[in-house]
Design goal:
globular, 397 residues, two-stranded antiparallel sheet, 62% helix, alpha+beta, 3 domains, four-stranded antiparallel beta sheet
Length: 397
């Protein structure tokens, strides 16, 4: 209905007050007068509004503080510089990108309450991860990116040296705060893998889930994947895991949590074109095309990925139909001219961009569900071997 959040909150509050009024009338004892119930209802309403206002003070201060931080970052251009710094360090390596993003989220989230934490890390780091991830050849959903930065922003609560939650827990247990924080990090690894998996397996966020059976499959396999990952990180399944079993269990866990990633290692999702022949190639409209470019700027090289989605064109097309003409210059394939009305110009491509790679979607590969089958077989086999070791060690004991 395109109504605002404030509209929803206001009428929800009014509805709660009315529901409490009706509750007072219906559940009141018969000997209680209506005026007495009305007074109780009015008193509870006033107390409820007072408590709501008092509870909102902490949230309001947190959001105001976060607003100051975000405003300062926006006015100084720090967010843009963060992108440049991370991009210059990570280049097009997604592993370095994720590691740097985690580190910065831990630093930015130190000492902040939950609401302010989210506002800060989401405003500063989410677009960094989207832009630089795009340069690395990955298209991350916005919801996955926000969950990723939010989770690792909250991890700052248990991460030394600040680790407010670790200090609170140590105060209750009487333990050492730093050791408590280190133990908390180790425990958090079990769930810390999930935000990373969100980036590569969107089905865990129910993105691309087609029906109820598909959803059940995703839920079951992800639960098994987390169980196996926990077993590997604890080095214990039914019995103590040996070093090679830990490696195997980590691979099995990855197969359950991100089958597409594993399948890509054996059957790539995209086929790469020979750049010098790219201008001659005819693309099929039902296949996605990825064009990766390097743009030279005064701040260094910037990498970007442009996607020609399926069925953008109704028939076979080439790069000229897309709106670009290529030429070879100094051993690089660059964009020589752009059609100002073409899709390439609308997408953001520019003249003199260097074409780094062009790849086309590959349909000649097995379904990723086959990875689940091999993962189940491997888990059954090595789980049984671990169980036999347990029986053997028990008899020996």
């Amino acid at each position: 209905m395109r109504l605002t959040a404030s509209y929803s909150i206001f009428y929800a509050t009014i509805a709660l007050i009315l529901v409490n009024f009706i509750n007072k009338i219906i559940k009141s004892p018969k000997e209680t007068s209506f005026s007495s119930n009305l007074k109780d209802w009015a008193k509870e309403t006033v107390i409820g509004l007072e408590k709501g206002a008092i509870n909102m003070i902490a949230v309001g201060v947190a959001i105001a503080t976060a607003g100051v931080i975000v405003g300062a970052v926006g006015s100084t251009g720090l967010s843009t510089n963060l992108i440049l710094v991370i991009e210059s360090i990570a280049g097009d390596n997604v592993i370095i990108l994720i590691a740097l993003t985690i580190l910065l989220c831990l630093l930015l989230g130190m000492g902040l309450p939950t609401t302010a934490n989210y506002v800060v890390v989401a405003s500063l780091m989410s677009m960094v991860l989207v832009d630089v991830g795009n340069a690395s050849g990955y298209i991350f959903p916005i919801i996955a990116v926000h969950l990723f930065v939010f989770y690792f922003g909250l991890m700052a609560d248990v991460t030394p040296p600040v680790g407010l939650a670790s200090y609170a827990a140590a105060g209750i247990s009487g333990g050492d705060p730093l050791r408590t924080g280190m133990q908390a990090i180790w425990y958090s690894l079990r769930t810390g893998v999930l935000p990373i998996v969100f980036l590569f397996n969107h089905e865990l966020l129910l993105i691309g889930v087609e029906n109820i059976w598909h959803a059940i499959l995703v839920i079951i396999t992800s639960l098994i994947g987390i169980l196996v990952f926990s077993a590997a990180t604890q080095a214990w399944f039914i019995n103590k895991l040996r070093w090679f079993e830990i490696i195997i269990f980590l691979f099995i866990s990855l197969s359950f949590l991100s089958p597409e990633y594993v399948l890509n290692k054996f059957y790539p999702k995209f086929n790469y074109l020979e750049l010098e022949q790219a201008h001659k190639y005819i693309f099929e409209p039902n296949k996605e095309v990825h064009i990766k470019i390097t743009r030279q700027t005064e701040y260094g090289d910037k990498y970007k990925l442009f996607v020609i989605n399926r069925n953008t064109y109704g028939e076979n097309f080439n790069l000229e139909n897309y709106g670009i003409n290529l030429v070879k210059s100094k051993n690089n394939i660059i964009i020589d001219t752009l059609d100002w009305k073409g899709n390439a110009k609308k997408s953001g491509l520019e003249m003199d961009d260097i074409i780094s790679e062009i790849k086309i979607e590959n349909f000649d590969r097995p379904n990723k569900d086959f990875v689940y089958i091999f993962a189940f077989i491997a888990l059954a086999l090595f789980g049984f071997l671990n169980y036999k070791n347990y029986r053997f060690s028990d008899k020996q004991y």
